[in-house]
Design brief:
11 helices; D-Maltodextrin-Binding Protein, domain 2; 2 domains; globular; alpha/beta; about 20% strand; about 45% helix; 11 strands
Length: about 325
């Protein structure tokens, strides 16, 4: 065998490197042209649910129930990250800036439609995210602490606040739909309620139960157990009709406020650029969760109606609410400072 000269070794090495570079370029070009990827299908690792409000409220509850079912359905852990602050917008921004790979999912309520108007943000979050599925909807609840006195109806509360204008009213945050409800109700009732915003429903409910704040507009999920125990009183709910979970609680319309209807909804969104195939798989898993009998039972016990929808119908509904909140904020002249 002839010995390999230095020149021959260099020529061989260059040929191998060129071949490898060509193969890599060809592989990348094929992928860019839509050739099948060799990557494992979604999901092949844990999925993060970004929840922009604190633990303990209706949004967090829905995220955990859906996440638990999806973990079993997909064979991968779905974990919750509560990223709070600024009326939920910090968590929304975090989701927008996350990699569009299906492993960061925003589970939000309709603050995504309300906050841009209430907080004068000059942003449209619905254009920065892709819809996946509407998960559920529920009314909000008007509640009081028993120490406020013999207040057993909305009319009683209105009479009380007229005697004590500036009574504090808790919500889960500035820019929330509850913030809009507070201002809308106060205007129709002709009373002055001072807004007491929290970083989510959990701490707000704790302070209501402790009597640190006497009045609240909050989601009913965490209020129902306290209502049954007698530690808070539910005066009204804000749906078009009474929730099946709260059959004995009047709506605001039944309490003398026609047209004052505002329900919350809970939905999933992902960053722009998330592959359509991933969105479709995620949507199917979420529909499976919301149609599961045990999941539905848990939802209904918390006054939440399970839905499950296609991305297009979520997009239409969210856009309609974005425009509704824009109108309400302007009509009510809501300011955050």
């Amino acid at each position: 065998m002839k010995p390999i000269t230095r020149r021959k070794l260099l020529e061989t090495t260059a040929a191998v490197l060129a071949s490898g570079a060509y193969g890599l370029a060809g592989s990348n070009a094929a992928r860019a042209q839509g050739a099948p990827s060799t990557e494992a299908p979604w999901p092949n690792r844990p999925v993060r649910f970004i929840v922009p409000l604190a633990a303990g409220g209706g949004l967090d509850f829905v995220a955990r129930v859906v996440g638990e079912h999806m973990s079993r359905e997909l064979g991968q852990q779905v974990f919750i990250e509560n990223r709070t602050g600024a009326g939920g917008t910090i968590g929304i921004d975090m989701a927008i800036k996350s990699p569009p790979d299906g492993y960061s999912v925003l589970i939000t309520n309709d603050n995504i439609a309300a906050a841009p108007h209430v907080q004068r943000l000059n942003v449209d979050y619905l254009k920065e995210l892709r819809p996946v599925s509407l998960l559920g909807r529920q009314p909000q609840a008007l509640a009081v602490h028993p120490s406020i006195g013999a207040i057993n109806s909305v009319a009683d509360l209105v009479a009380f606040v007229k005697q004590k204008p500036g009574t504090g009213c808790a919500t889960s945050g500035v820019g929330s739909n509850q913030h809009v409800l507070l201002e809308w109700f106060a205007k129709q009732a002709g009373i002055k309620l001072d807004h007491v915003p929290y970083r989510g429903a959990g701490q707000a409910i704790n302070d209501l139960v402790a009597g640190h704040v006497k009045v609240a507009f909050l989601g009913p999920t965490a209020l129902i157990p306290h209502h049954k125990a007698g530690t808070v009183r539910l005066l009204a709910q804000t749906g078009e009709a009474r929730s099946r979970s709260l059959p004995d609680t009047l709506t605001l319309q039944e309490s003398g406020f026609p047209g004052l209807v505002l329900e919350s909804w809970y939905a999933a969104f992902v960053p722009l650029g998330t592959p359509p195939a991933v969105i479709a798989r995620m949507n199917a898993a979420m529909k499976a969760a919301t149609t599961d009998a045990k999941t539905r039972e848990k939802f209904l016990q918390s006054a939440t109606e399970p839905v499950g929808s296609d991305p297009d119908s979520l997009a239409r509904g969210a856009r309609a609410d974005f425009e509704k909140y824009q109108r309400l904020v302007n009509e009510l002249n809501i300011r955050t400072n």
